[in-house]
Amino acid sequence: MATWQFGPFDNDDAVEWCGALEDSAPDQRVDLVRHTLEAAVITEPALSPEGAAQAIAAAATVLQSLTGTPSSDSAYAPRFLIGRDDVQVTPSLRDLATRALDTVLADGSTWRLRWADHVEEEEALSVIEELRISLAAETP
Question: Which residues of 46-75 are buried (b: 16+ CB within 10 A; e: fewer)?
Fold first, then answer.
């Protein structure tokens, strides 16, 4: 996974996922978001780095859909969804996004191990923790 920043859409896997989201039919987008988040929660201890990056992107998409504003400054964020209701957020979808981020942030997760002992580990963790806090604070 090529990563160039810390944001939810600042790596190859998230950009690819967001491209798939944009390419899907509008009535199928919420399903893609939900399936991505469910996969992260279901595969919890064995979540791949790619799956983690996609789950982070999906959670950021949920937050953007809740707030109506981009959750990332990245050029690859799903701005095409702003002002649309393609991803209608229910309490269960918001909760699923929060649980997926818990999986990503768990001690021993593959995402976390990739950042372990990295000079920018704290910054990477804080971005995802802030996303989680923001999601938990929002109400659909």
Answer: ebebbbbbbbbbbbbbbbbbbeeebbbebe
Each residue of 34-47: pLDDT tens digit? 999 999 999 977 89
The answer as to whether 7 is a domain residue is no
34 occurs within a structural domain:
yes
pTM (whole model) above 0.90: yes
- Domain containing 42 equals 12-137
The domain total for the chain is: 1
Residue 134: pLDDT above 50? Answer: yes
In a domain? residue 125: yes
